Amino acid sequence: MKISAVRPLVLGTPWRNLTYVVVETDEGLSGVGEVRMVNHTESLLGYLKEATQHHILGSDPFKIEDLTQRMFRRDFARASEIMMSAIATIEIACWDIMGQALNVPIYQLLGGEVRERIPAYANGWYTVERSPEEFHAAAKRVVARGYRALKVDPFGAGFYELSRAEKQQAISLIEAVRAAVGDEVDIFVEMHGRFSASTATALIRELAPFNPGWFEEPVPPENLAVLKKVSDAVSPLGIPIATGERLHTPYEFRELFELQAADIIQADITHSGGLLATKKIAAWADAYYMLIAPHNVCGPVGTAAALHLAASTPNFKIQEHFNDFADAWVKDVVTGMPEVDPVDGCFPLPQGPGLGIKLNEDFIVEHPRKDVFFDLFKHDWQYRQAEQNITQKNG
């Protein structure tokens, strides 16, 4: 079996473009991968075009390690988010092909299931006014959907520091969310790499009484020694630090592990080279007694891939899920996607061969790529309505 074609398709939403990559073979089987690139979709498509010509066409989709290593090393370039994301889309599609050819779900090829249910937490739910009343009501809707955990960034457009008024507003929002969901639901506090070490440390201490499940990316990701500084300062509070969505290679994770600067690893399968690469990172994290909670802002294809990793990874903690609240209609881009259980906020194990889903390409045509720019440091970004300029055809 050989790869005969690679077809990227871009689905547009009001704030993100979702890129689906269909990998076809000369034996009639095809697989699909997905990635959400923040503001760099055109760069991704350009890389995929060149990689298809030089590395992908004619490759055996069963030889995943060989293909991804050639894409990673033969260009004689340092790995970037764009490179690792492109590799991931192809890699996931190859696993999908392999699972279909062997008539087994991907998680069976990754070592088999180690759990019967996959816990998930909600994100993208707080597209409301930044007031305690609105956050309280929105959080109640999350719990009503059956989720037992949710994530929230209460910090507005904050960068490095907050004014006293901004800090008090952020605290009031978390207080309102805790009051809404009760003591049995996890609240994960997203900090989006906004703050200096001193600001992050002060905020974590002030929010600790609300018993968050973790504090995520308290400082920018480039300088892990600063993250270590924050982690050491707040360690007596006993609340985990989570990070990793903007680390893309094993070499970046190596420094994080050696510094012991975090407790929970949030590698994104679609930005870290795919399922096997992330499985390796998870195993490495396990050697440091760390859990993995994969970052996931994808539509249902990326989510399906994440569920196969979760099913087969012993130190998995919980899966991020956007698609019940942010542009829930994107779920119609596939058939076969399992739903979050309305009782305990868990996904069932994926079913069917490969990813267990089928892509609806007509749906993508109906929702073409948009020229959007999403800015997490813009006032009222939480509405997730990026400015739109030109609607473009699929790449």
Explained architecture:
By secondary structure, the protein is of the alpha/beta class. It has two domains: 3-104 and 360-391, Enolase-like, domain 1, CATH 3.30.390; 107-358, Enolase-like C-terminal domain (TIM Barrel, Alpha-Beta Barrel), CATH 3.20.20. Helix content is 37%, strand content 18%. It is built from twelve helices and 16 strands. Strand 7 (214-216), helix 8 and strand 8 (241-243) form a beta-alpha-beta unit. Helix 2 (64-73) packs antiparallel against helix 3 (81-102). The radius of gyration is 20 Å and the shape is globular. Mean pLDDT is 96; it is low at 389-395. Residues 132-237 form the Mandelate racemase/muconate lactonizing enzyme C-terminal domain.
Entry keywords:
TIM Barrel; 395 residues; six-stranded parallel beta sheet; Enolase-like_C_sf; alpha/beta; 37% helix; globular; three-stranded antiparallel beta sheet; single chain; 12 helices; Enolase-like_N
* Beta-strand percent range: 15-25%
Strand order of the largest sheet: 5-6-7-8-9-10
Helix content class:
25-40%
Based on the structure, what is the oligomeric state of the protein chains? single chain
Instruction: Note the gap between the termini.
Output: 26 Å
What is the CATH class designation of the largest domain? Alpha Beta
Uncertain segments are 389-395
What is the domain total for the residues?
Answer: 2
Mean pLDDT: 96
* Overall geometry: globular
Task: Compute the number of strand runs.
Answer: 16
Gyration radius over CA:
20 Å
Largest sheet descriptor: 6 strands, parallel
The H/E string reads EEEHHHHEHEHEHEHEHEHEHEEEEHEE
